[in-house]
User: Fold these one by one.
Assistant:
Number 1:
Amino acid sequence: MSDDVFIEYSCIINPNTYLTAGFSIAVPGKGIRDVFPGNDPIWSGGFVNVVVNY
């Protein structure tokens, strides 16, 4: 229902700790445009994750 683009960065901080960060953009496809005509914004979002294994 949408076309998505993801950009993601991963980093190993040490053998037990990992960092992941990213950004995404979703462009509405035909299905979304048909359901919500004239109101089809481009969605964007971001995230940061830290994982610690012990």
Note: Residues 2-52 form one domain.
Number 2:
Amino acid sequence: MRIALAQYNYHIGNFEYNTAKIIRGIHEAKSRQANLVVFAELSVCGYPSGDFLEFKDYIDKCYRAIDEIALHCQGIAAIVGAPHRNANPKGKPLYNAAFFIEEGEVKQIYRKGLLPNYDIFDEYRYFEPATEFDIVSYRGKRIALTICEDLWNLYDNPLYTQNPMDRLAEKGADFMLNIAASPFAWDHGGERKNMLSRNASRYRMPLFYVNQVGAQTELIFDGGSMAINAHGGITHEMESFTESMLVIETDEMGRKTGIKPSPEADYDKKIENIYKALVSGIKDYFGKLGFSKAILGLSGGIDSAVTMVIAADALGVENVLGVLLPGQFSSDHSLKDAEDLAKTLGCPYHTIPITDITARFEENLKPWFKELPFDVAEENIQARTRAVYLMALSNKFGYVLLNTSNKSEAAVGYGTLYGDMCGGLSVLGDVYKTDVFGLARYINRKDEIIPVNSIIKPPSAELRADQKDSDSLPEYDILDEVLFQYIEKRKGPDELVQMGFDKKLIDRILKLVNTCEYKRYQTPPILRVSPKAFGMGRKMPIVAKYLG
């Protein structure tokens, strides 16, 4: 049997677009002599659809799309993902399902059994877990069809009480097919490959895996669809972050040696993948919302420089406007670094001094501030003045403002609400400062795009004289390690001290993180590239005493 794996980018709720793309894929697969073409999880409506799944009309449109798709399944079968109504009045109203379509009609519906309900996943909110699993028979082959999480329950401490693949294996199958909507995180690719390889080895049968690509608001999907032989060796792997179709002859799988998954990728590969993910995230956020132009404050620092390069890669240099907003404490070298970057990239830029405006604010506030010393209040006036200019240009000319704050700053609240924290999309909000430096080095791997001075100078907000980030924060290599252990690894204060960190340092950092939760509730959507990002996957109360 010849199977076509369709690694496509879908648009949530855009049924006309998704249906047309699936139909084109069916015809392409047929032209390449495929017998079966396989699309990703919930490909008909897009993943994740969120509370749209609670609308009757939304589900009706899914069914109508499947009817239209079925008309094109003549001489070829297709597997598409879509919600399926639960006929039982008890339980959740929907299943997360895979529809097997042949000769113009739906012949079989597989329902997902394992529903992830952690981090960014919230499937049990909408779907009923299936408890019965059947083999799909087609052209003399018995197919163990599963959906994403259904294959993830084979480790020493399983999360679920059932294992769909065990049940399917008992019924006898020639190979496994898994359709997925598995989002990118920098550590997830290796884990995913190991999981798929272990399944193939455990059940002693080939495995074909289809994932989607593209971005849906915060979530970025890297694809990485693949085929694995019965010994766990990867025989085919599709390019990440790229739409494509791969046709494989199933009977040849036994003759292909394959490559066992390697240990986790090195740091350079991690940074390269983060860069590609962020480009994909910006491109789809703008494209799917109908925007084309971005604006950002260009300070001469490394965060805005990296953001501008990534945005220019995603949108085109002509569509990214940098705005230099020098104030009383802006250094000449920062202005030059910002100008040099824009000129090197070929991006348009404007310069709007803010010194007179901030001085007027301070003068008007004198009756209340009186003789009080200069402090964070005056610093924040500068940041908010810059935001007013950026948002005015955004409103007038249709730009989307890109937020340039990094994850280290977001974690400890090192930013100004309604100032440098504003924007329509946060590009680096899930990238620690140390990895921002890694991205800058990756960008400059061939030519000097980002001025070297932006990379080597001490980071500074330049909101007061001779200011450096290290005046208020620990050095970033130490700060980021503590933040990673606390946020990603969920290590509490006692565990962190046992790991060798100074108790006073831990108390200080964790207090900053937890007392600044209210700020993170007001940040733009953050492109997710880590296993634990701020936003939909990290649910923390604002009003709480623990670690406060």
Note: Residues 2-250 form a domain with the Nitrilase/N-carbamoyl-D-aminoacid amidohydrolase fold (CATH 3.60.110.10).
Number 3:
Amino acid sequence: MGRLIGDGHLFLQVVDIAVLPEHQKKGLGKLIMKALMNWIDKNTTCDCYVSLFAVQKACLLYESFGFVHSMPRSKGMVYARPQ
């Protein structure tokens, strides 16, 4: 499960990324993120601020989709969209 909240144009937050424990480690989190990121890339401009809050064990997943820590030791991450 996963969803985006926000105004759909300037501000979006990735929330509720969850996979049942018995289905974890099967790549489902990556599939969810890929679908959300495809929607973001097709429906927003490069000015859209995309953020999320991550638990430590999920940071590598989000980093693989272009998210970076928004400040040192912060749980928040923002999408560093390629120019």
Note: Residues 3-79 form a domain with the Aminopeptidase fold (CATH 3.40.630.30).
Number 4:
Amino acid sequence: MVYTVQDKVVLVTGANRGIGKALVEAFLRYGARKVYAAVRNIDSAKATFPEACEEAKVIPVTMDLSKPETIQTAAEIATDVEIVINNAGIISHTGPLDDNTVERLQEEMTVNVYGLIAVARAFVPFLEQRNGCGILVQLNSVASLRCGVSSVATYSASKAASFSLTQAMRQELKPKGIHVVSVHPGPIATEMLADALKEFLDVAEPPSNVAERLIDALTSRNESCDKPNPPFLVYPDEKSAHLGTVYERFAKRVVEEGHSYG
């Protein structure tokens, strides 16, 4: 028996647009039993997935990563979840020495880092009950690994922090039977990219590529087992794959094997 996402219950944060929307659509296409669409305004999810909401295949839930109480309330609704994907995040066009750098960094840390902590705290108790099949996915970024554009310095800093936390969560949650996956997209054609880094739109890939490659990662290493065995690091597009190749040796030695030096 092979592990698949068919009949699984999934929760996606930031589900009403961009990568989040593509993730919801892909999981439904691959037969997920139900997807909780976690958004700040549930009307946006109802408008984005009208038919699926009518059929109760998509369940909109209110969640704002800057408000931990909404995350806890959503977790109390989605108690049957098996796969949690923390996709929501914010980005600003802010350099390292701008007048508003500290303010923007605080905003991005609140959502991109503290939000991740709150999501994990709220949902780990339920994922732990899945008998080794619970999965926590964090949408990080190539900017988690390298700040290649100074105009998104605060975003890169927040995503580097979220990646560090993702690594720590992987270690802490493995004994609980929870699989942690860190996804590192490069330029993806979303409203967020258009707002902050429109100069990369010409080389950006569609959000559907991220969704397809994540599902492939969750299912492709399970030829003889009905439990998930996903890789920790997923590079879902051509640009990120190039960086991932360079990062691979370091990742294997430091992230995978736990060596700190040498």
Note: The mean pLDDT is 90.
